[in-house]
Amino acid sequence: LKSSQRVDVKSFKIEGEGANTIFQVDNKGDLFVSRSLDREEKNAYHLTATMFDGNNQLIEDSGEFVVQVTDINDNTPVFPKTYNGSIMERSTIGTKVIEVRATDADDPTTANGELKYSLIQDRAISPFEIHSTTGVISCKTNTLDRESQSRFVLVVKAQDMRGMASGSTSTTSVTISITDANDNYASFTRKIYELQVPEDHKLNEKIGTLELEDRDEIQNKEPIFTILNENSKMFNIELSPNKDGNLMLKQALDYETKSIYTFTVQVRENLLFPADNKNSAATTAQVNIKVLDVDEAPLFSQPIYTFNVMEERTVNNIGSVKARDPDRANKTIRYSILDKDCPIGIHPFTGQLSTQRTLDRELEATHMFQVKAQEEPSGLESFVKVNIIVQDVNDNKPELNVDDIFVCENDRTNTVIGTLRATDKDDQPASFTFSLASDNSNFSIRDYGTTNVSHPSCPPQSGYVRGFNHPCGCICVPISGEPNKTQVFSFFQTDLGGFLPRSVVDSFFPSSMAEFYSNLAKAVKSLKDL
C-alpha cells in the first residue's frame, strides 16, 4: 500500500473480506496472504485501507481495492455419469448417437477450464467418432451390422488445457446398442418338409408348421409365403405366433382320390436394405404331404329321395336308394328302414323300395321316413330322408250335399226349388251326373254335369277353370216404425276361378244382382198375398 504523503513514521489498517485473517499488512504497506487461496471457492476479495502517522493521526482516508485470485489448473474434468445410447444398423455416416458432457471447476475463460473430447482407441477400429468440442458421438460408417456385433463400449476422455498433454484428464464409458433392421431374408430350416394328415382333417385347421430361421429380431421377421403350383387351391400358409408358416387346409381331402401332394413353397421378405444373407438363405422348400386313409361312413348318391306311388296298388319296385363305401375297401352296404310301422319296405342289399301294404292317399298323401345304410358287417352308418308321394286314383264315391228344400203349393212348373251339390275325396277334378233314383211325376232334375252353374252359351272347356260361389247370403234388418219395409244386405263370396277382364266382372254382377232382387220382391209379394 502506498501514499503520496511523506511521513517518516506510518502505519496501515485494512478492513473487509478476509482482512487481518487471510490478509495481513505491515508498516511498510506490504500485503501478505496468511494461507492458501482457492479460486473455485472465492475468486475475489473486496477490501479497504487507511494510513496513520506516528501519533496515530489519519493521514490517508480509506480507499477500496480488490484482490483477484488468479486460476491455476488444479481441477480435473468430471463426467456426471456413464452413458448409454443406441443406433439402428445400416445407419448413414454422420448419424448422431449420443452427446456426452464433462465439467471442470477451473476458470472456463482460461485454458484451465477448456475441455477437449476424444475416444480412447483399443486395437479394433471403432465405427464411431466424437466431436472434440461438443462431445457429440456419431457414426462414421454405414456398415453397422447388429447380427455381427450388437453392442459397442466406448471410452471417452475429457482433457482440459485445450487438450494439451499437460492438461488433466477424466474418462467415462459409453455403451452403444445396435438396434435391428430388416436386412436378412427368412430362411427355411429344412429343404424338405414331410407331413402326414388324415383325410377327414377339418378345413382351415393347421396341418403342420414350416419353421424359418431369421437372423433379424422377431419384429423384423416378415415372411411372405407362396405355394408355387395349383396346390394353392388346396392349401394355404398363415403366420404362426413365431412368424413361421402354418400350413392350412382349404379344401377337403379324399384319400381314395389322391393320397400324395408334393409342391414347392417360396418365402420372401420386403427388405429395407440389401440382404446380408442373400447368397446363403434357403428361400424355397419342398413339402410332401401324405394323406392317411380314414374309415368313412357310406355316401348316398342323393341328399334326399322322392318317389311317386299310385294308391291302392301293390308296387314291388318304387325305386332304389343307392349308397357306396367311399373307402378303397368298398365294403358291402346293408339298407334298412328304422320305422317299423312304415308301409314301405327296402331290399337290404339293392336298396329297392316296395310297398308293404296298399296306400290310401285320402288317409295319408305323403310318407316320410329315413333309410339307414351301414357297412357290413357292423361298420359305419349313414342316413338319408325319403319322401313317398301317393298318387290319386278314382277310388271314392261321390257324396251328395243337400240343403233343406222348400216348395210352395202354388209354385209354377219348372220353378227351381233347390240345387244339389256333390263332393269327391279324390284328388282329380270330378264331373258329376245327377238323376232321380226313381221316376217322379212332380219333380225332375236338370243335370248340368257339375256342381257349378252352367249355361249353354258357356260350356265347360278343357284348360279353363270355372267360377265358384262360396257361402253367400242376405241379412234382413227391420226398419223401425215401418213394419212393411225391411233393409236387405247381401254378401257374395265369388271365386271367378280365372283371370277375367274387369269389364266382364262389372257387367256380370249388376245384372245378376238386379235379377236376384227382382225375384226376391216377387217371392215376398206372393207370400204376403197368402
UniProtKB/TrEMBL annotation:
Keywords from the UniProt entry? Calcium, Cell adhesion, Cell junction, Cell membrane, Cleavage on pair of basic residues, Glycoprotein, Membrane, Metal-binding, Repeat, Signal, Transmembrane, Transmembrane helix
Compartments it resides in: Cell junction; Cell membrane
Q: Name one Pfam family in it.
A: START
Q: GO molecular function of the protein, one example?
A: beta-catenin binding
The yes or no answer to whether the keyword DNA-binding is present is: no
Query: Which Gene3D superfamilies did the record assign?
Result: 3.30.530.20, Cadherins (2.60.40.60)
Respond yes or no to whether keyword Glycoprotein is given for this record. Answer: yes
The segment(s) forming the Cadherin domain are 12-79, 79-188, 189-300, 301-400
SUPFAM superfamilies in alphabetical order: Bet v1-like, Cadherin-like
User: Per its UniProt record, what SMART domains does this chain match?
Assistant: CA
Question: Matching InterPro entries, A to Z?
Answer: Cadherin, Cadherin-like_dom, Cadherin-like_sf, Cadherin_CS, START-like_dom_sf, START_lipid-bd_dom
Q: Which PANTHER family match?
A: CADHERIN-23, CADHERIN-5
The name this protein carries in UniProt is Cadherin-10-like
